[in-house]
Amino acid sequence: MNAGHKLRLKWLGIDTYQEAVIYMRRDCEVCRSEGFEAQSRVRVARNGVEIVATLNVIDSDLLAPHQASLSSAAWRQLDGREGDTIRVRPLPPLESLIALRSKIYGHRLNDEQMYCIIEDVARGRYPNIYLAAFVAACAGGRLDADETVSLTRAMVNVGQRLDWGSAPVVDKHCVGGLPGNRTTPIVVAIVTAAGLIMPKTSSRAITSPAGTADTMETLAPVALDLPAIRRVVGKEGGCIVWGGAVNLSPADDILIRVERPMDLDSEGQLVASVLSKKLAAGSSHALIDIPVGYTAKIRSQHAATMLKTLLEYVAGNLGLAIQVVFTDGSQPVGRGVGPALEARDILAVLRNEADAPVDLRERSLTLAGTLLEFCGTAAIGTGVAHARRLLDSGQAWAKFVAIANAQGGLRTPPVAPHTHPVCAVKAGRVTAIDNRLVSRAAKLAGAPRAASAGINLHVMVDSPVEIGMPLFTVHAETPGELEYALSYLDIHPRIVKVEER
To answer: What sections of the sequence does the record tag as coiled-coil (predicted)?
Structure first.
């Protein structure tokens, strides 16, 4: 077997997000002898660690013929150092491409074919173009229920699976599409204060202005490895961490990398993403929240019922007990939309502050109470009252502080240096708030990449409004991002719909 050609690493500092890329001169020994061309997939090894990377070819003196460079993501994966020796060799043909092509042409995939694809995805063998092809081939209802079971099972099996040695181990997930709906940290604090085990691994945002991991990261470290997660859960009964930092359903985070710019979150992949993370984290019971509203991700009760059926079918086939609840998705929850702004809402609720958003508080209590009843910690009909006692007494806040400190320390969310209020141009009553437009404006302001950016809402549906009254405030980290969001709002002025009295 070819041991590979040797090259010396040079740091260029090129950010390709999470994609591993290697840069070599066209006239270097490796490219000449192997016949490598731009976009070739190659294996790159250093000190016994090997990754798969996409080749980008350089035709300048940026690199010497004996040098190579790596994207920031690849550099981290190999723990590279300037001047290190790396070995580069070809990547053998991928057998899973046969299955991928079959899916592109509309054929069903069996367990073996799905596992073959997902294993190559998880091992970093698929470039973005293959990943995009797979995501697109599975979107639009092109995965049936049994294929979704196969996809979920494969996503669990290619990574690690935690075992906590006791039951129940609980989890909670919202399918998304509702700005500001950051109930998870509050629910974790309440149910762990009640004595349940809740090792919560969350994703970063896919198509929204913030995910739970993005928001929690403004309050405490979330990129914990498995030993650290075990330590935190062993000490406090729960955690709120980023799942991408550990090898739990690793293919999911890779697929999310492609789904985000494509703005895709198809039903089958959504179910596989949600349930694979629960199973990999060792959960025995999971509560799934489906907000339903005209401008939410799930727009109709019919669509919500179909998704519930698929979730229950897949979970039942894989041995996970779930309870699905439908919630109001007609408007954003809380005031903040964006990581730091949502974090402030969470703190206000947990601290029982007088001006804490009531809708976020009550929704969190409902979900926590349902979970307590589902797992037998509270009798049927008493869960919400039990959850309320834990929150009102300060026990939930104390538990949240303990979890945050165990993860590395509670910190204060950042504040955006640039803000601009958007005010009412007529008096009346708020009749609608468009979830999608709120999310889009918050993202244009910089969220979730800019943690302090987003939208802070000052009104809800049915709120009375006077001329000149602030409806919401845009937060941004740079003047350009603020102007970008405001330009969008000029084009879409009915983000908050006000009807005259």
So the answer is: none
